[in-house]
Amino acid sequence: MIKVMENHSQSRFIPWPSRFLPRNALRTAILGVLLMFAVCSGVQALPVQGLYQEEIAVANQSDQERRRAYREAFALVITKVTGESRWLEHPQIVSALNSADRYVAEVSFRSGGGASQQAGQLEVRFDQSLIDSLLEGANIPVWDVNRASVLLWITVQDIAGRRTMLGSSSEHELLDQVRAFSDRRAVPVLIPLLDLEDRLLVTADRAWTLDTESLRKAADRYAADSVLAGRILVTPTGDLVGFWQFIFRDDIQVFDHIHNDMTSYMEMPLDRAAVTLASYFGLVASEFEREDRVVLRVNDINDLQSYARLVQYLESLSVVRQIKIDALRTDSLELELQLLGTRQILTEFISLGRDLQPVDFVPGQAVGEVLHYRWTR
């Protein structure tokens, strides 16, 4: 299921470009909240929309209530754009928070109905360039529009000892929290179908023991960039005792999480996953000032359609500024790319998708003048 924020009739939000464009505009291409709660296979990094807008409930339309809504929306937007709530404690962000109205670009109000026409929802869109400039000045990294996906695999044991894996069709309070988190933080979360293929890949016993090999195979099926897996024991007193594992590339984090409140239990493990991904992929704007050029050699480009898809894909990447054909062969071609950033950053962005697979190097490591890939779409 894919949830998309609705546009209210009182306002008109103009889509922003999907890539970092002019340098002096501070790469304002981070789009905002396409809230992905996907259950389908064949996806990996997922684009998000609406990062710079929020909807806040207000009791009335007074100036005081409006300023409160601005501050609350501003804090949520900063957390979404950076991926980490810790930046709200940065002195420059604290100062900006107290004058959040200066960053507002557009506001619309939707009445909540009922007896009081003063209460309702205030939808606030902030000026991207102003927020990006603020983050750049504070040297705070921004998490790009193409965000790494998280496959969530949860097994719950109730007080009767019954174990249940939670899937896309499950109705459970923990999954409601996941949906809310995905919405609020713009983190693409994938929920397994738990069909026959899933249950063969990850049996109930393997799920409970958090078997890493099985979970990696499941991640391959869903083309997920990472896996957050947990086993949760519900005690007779209502406590939730959980053991968690977060798998991202070669790194495996293992941690406990014990809480006595079901309604907020998922916040901690999901936040840990989001922070890990944001800290890995987040970039400060100054890194995009370090321009670079690289030759991209791509195999298996056999027809005009493949070439067009390749160029379209490369143009969607934030770090690619310009593309020029360097050499054309029977089944491959070479492209010269002008980058807004380093070639190492380019390989990291490409690694979030499955369209290009490296032939003779490891993404993120030091690379030479030519990057050799194979086109797989």
Order of helices and strands: EEEEHHEEHEEEHEHHHEEEHEHEEHEE
The percentage helix is 25-40%
Please state the overall shape, judged from the principal axes of the Cα atoms: globular
- Strand count: 18
Query: What is the straight-line distance between the termini?
Result: 24 Å
Written description of the protein model:
It is built from ten helices and 18 strands. It is α+β, with helices and mostly antiparallel strands. The protein has three domains: 2-35 and 50-145, no CATH class; 147-281, 3-Layer(aba) Sandwich (Rossmann fold); 290-375, Alpha-Beta Plaits (2-Layer Sandwich). A hairpin with a 5-residue loop joins β8 and β9 (163-166). The radius of gyration is 22 Å and the shape is globular.
Task: Sum this structure up briefly.
This protein has 377 residues and is an alpha+beta fold. It has helices at residues 63-82, 91-97, 128-137, 173-185, 196-201, 204-208, 212-222, 267-281, 304-315, 343-351; strands at residues 2-4, 34-38, 46-47, 53-58, 104-111, 120-126, 146-147, 150-157, 163-166, 189-190, 226-234, 240-248, 251-259, 292-299, 320-328, 332-339, 356-358, 370-375. A hairpin with a 3-residue loop joins strand 15 (320-328) and strand 16.
